[in-house]
Amino acid sequence: MLAHSTNEKKAFVYVREFDAPKELVFNAFSTAEALNAWWGPVETRNSVIKLDFRPGGIFHFKMEAPGGGVSYGRFLFGNIQPHDLLEFTNAFADEQARVVKAPFDIPLPLEIFYRLIFTEQNGKTTITLTGQPVNASPEETAAFHSINDGMEQGFGGTFDKLAAYLGGM
Predict the structure, then answer these.
(1) Predicted local distance difference test score (pLDDT) of residue 169
(2) DSSP classification of residue 44
(3) For 20, 132, 139, 167, which has the most beta carbons within 10 A of its beta carbon?
(4) For the chain, which domains are there?
(5) Residue 106 forms beta bridges with which residues?
């Protein structure tokens, strides 16, 4: 399993290889059943509230922490090129999918734009994920870059769950 990230000046980059064809990997992002099985932080129980997988559509989800804390997130989908490219803007949200401030003590941007590129070689799929703040102040951009190690761990754990899900198919 190949996995690495870099701390580039403008974008967070995370690369991960999966032992599955890209059609299966991409499709794991496209249904509520699949996302319920693997999406979200390892330490929370995650569930899909709404999924409208199309350009302009939404993925609204709930994250429940072991101690009882609840938070929500959402993707607003942009460009979707089946099996090759997925773009979305991600944010913390409330129960109605309205954007809210991150539940952390640092001034993170309200929204992050993510681009996932799916490539396949010899039956293995690589996702190259890049993330950048949207309409962020210099302080929010600096806060975003300050958590690159945590984002690497977070995507690593989430993509570990995706690998396990794909392995069970």
Answers:
(1) 79
(2) S
(3) 20
(4) 3-167 (3.30.530.20)
(5) none
